[in-house]
Amino acid sequence: MKFSQKSRYAIKALIDIAINGKDGKVTVYSIAERNGISVKFLEQILAMLRKSGIVKSVHGTKGGYFLNKRPSEITVAEVLYAVEGDFTISGENMPNDSSLSSISGIVQKNLIDRLNKSIKNITEDITIEELEKEYTKYIYEENVMYYI
Fewer beta carbons under 10 A from the terminal one: N or C of the chain? Predict the structure, then answer.
């Protein structure tokens, strides 16, 4: 498993839409500009997110993207499935007669399967809303002025 640039950009785009789309749609160009993402690559990512039902789009001069559900209902796992498909760590190709008594079987059961379960639990637990709040908190703290 690799946490690809595509996955990172998808999550960034959704946070951006959650923040900047509260009053309407957000254009692909504005998302790309604020986050330093290629417009063409972002369009491909947003198409995957649209196909999976995470975002909706409106075409035309006043078009753009908006979240299809509340940020609290969109998990990181859902985003990763939308852009990556299966994002688990793949196990070793073991022969059919392999059993858990083999070294490969032990590694699969006690390491790979446990890692995949943890990754699944973590990504299903984190929502776009949580990431949005953390980002907003960070921005607020960065812009606080202290006077003496």
Answer: C
- The predicted model gives 99-108 an average pLDDT of 78
Q: Which residue has the higher pLDDT, 98 or 53?
A: 53
For residue 120, which phi and psi values (nearest 5 degrees)?
Answer: -60, -45
Provide the whole-model pTM. 0.84
What CA–CA distance (Å, rounded) separates 68 from 49? 10
Query: How confident is the prediction for the chain on average, in pLDDT?
Result: 89
**Amino acid found at 51:** K
Q: Which one-letter amino acid corresponds to residue 109?
A: K
CA–CA separation, 21 and 64 (whole Å): 9
Q: Beta partners for 75?
A: 127
Q: Are 105 and 94 in contact (CB under 8 A)?
A: yes
Q: Name the residue among 11, 6, 147 with its Cα closest to residue 77.
A: 11
State the architecture of 5-142 in CATH terms: Orthogonal Bundle (1.10)
Q: Please report, for the chain, the start and end positions of each structural domain, with discontinuous segments joined by +.
A: 5-142
